[in-house]
Amino acid sequence: MLELKNISYVVEDSKGIIKDISLTIDDNKFIVITGPNGGGKSTLAKIICGILKPTSGNIILDGKDITDMSITERAKIGISFAFQQPVRFKGVTVKDLINLAAGKKLCTADACNYLSEVGLCAKDYIDREVNGSLSGGELKRIEIATVIARKTKLSIFDEPEAGIDLWSFKNLIEVFQKMHDEIHGSIIIISHQERILNIADEIIVIANGEIVNKGTREEVLDSLLDDSVSSPGCSVLREER
Ligand SMILES: Nc1ncnc2c1ncn2[C@@H]1O[C@H](COP(=O)(O)OP(=O)(O)O)[C@@H](O)[C@H]1O
Ligand SMILES: [Mg+2]
């Protein structure tokens, strides 16, 4: 279980990017965090995985306070993160990266399976370097494959849909569903996509650094749709039908 207790993140000259957020995420839950751009979602994800240290508040994983743990220590105890804008690694091949994520040397067929799962033709990618020659969408999928290969207690994906075409998107939904069925851990996805919201156990809406709505999918989706009818310009849902 992950607990955030009164988490704030303030940088100079700002009113506060995250303002006193408290929430509990039970094991084996599929949580989607949504809300307007600039609301603080990516900042909160980076605080959970240890890239940013909160200005105040505590992060507790399975009863243990991990607030002062580094990103590497958190990775070791089972937190994975896929960036909104994935990082490139010059000189490292896709296969190296998947092996690193899995924590063991996989045979080529097993490594390729992870790539196929995210809709990449594995043989075209497995020996490529994770450098500037990969497109944003390719990089994003490779990163999703590495998080799947890690099979951790808590996997966080920041806007996995960004840069991925809608034709392949259906497969990605299946990837997340399969991951949720197979891994005994929690998945947090930051997303604006209705199709991802539709498979959430719980939805959390963050705006202006605060939780403005939280509940089961049914509870929150209804109110999100109501909001978008009453104030269409302010909808947090980016419709893609
Ligand atoms: N290091 C920083 N210094 C100043 N402002 C920042 C910093 N990091 C993020 N912000 C601001 O904090 C707000 C929240 O950003 P972010 O967490 O990326 O939002 P979201 O992911 O919800 O779109 C934005 O207004 C952003 O410009
Ligand atoms: Mg973001």
Order of helices and strands: EEEHEEHEEHHHEHEHEHEEH
Supply the CATH superfamily name of the domain at 2-84 and 154-234: P-loop containing nucleotide triphosphate hydrolases
Taking pLDDT < 50 over at least 5 consecutive residues as the criterion, the unreliable ranges are none
In helices, the fraction of residues equals 25-40%
Please tally the helical runs, counting DSSP H or I stretches of 4 or more residues. Answer: 9
Reading off the top of the CATH hierarchy, the class of the domain at 2-84 and 154-234 is best stated as Alpha Beta
Kindly estimate the percentage of residues that lie in beta strands according to DSSP.
25-35%
> Which architecture name of the domain at 2-84 and 154-234 does CATH use?
3-Layer(aba) Sandwich
Shape from CA axes?
A: globular
Measure the end-to-end span. 35 Å
How many runs of DSSP E, i.e. beta strands? 12
Bound heterogens, unique: adenosine-5'-diphosphate, magnesium ion
Arithmetic mean pLDDT: 89
Q: Major sheet: size, sense and barrel closure?
A: 6 strands, mixed
- Helix vs. strand class: alpha/beta
In words, what does this structure look like?
There is one protein chain. The protein is an alpha/beta fold. The protein has a domain at 2-84 and 154-234: P-loop containing nucleotide triphosphate hydrolases (Rossmann fold), CATH 3.40.50.300. Helices cover 37% and strands 26% of the residues. The chain has 9 helices and 12 strands. Strands 6-9-10-3-11-12 form a 6-stranded mixed β-sheet, sandwiched between helices. Strands 2-1-4-5 form a 4-stranded antiparallel β-sheet, covered by helices on one side. β4 and β5 (64-65) form a beta hairpin. The radius of gyration is 18 Å and the shape is globular. Bound molecules: adenosine-5'-diphosphate and magnesium ion.
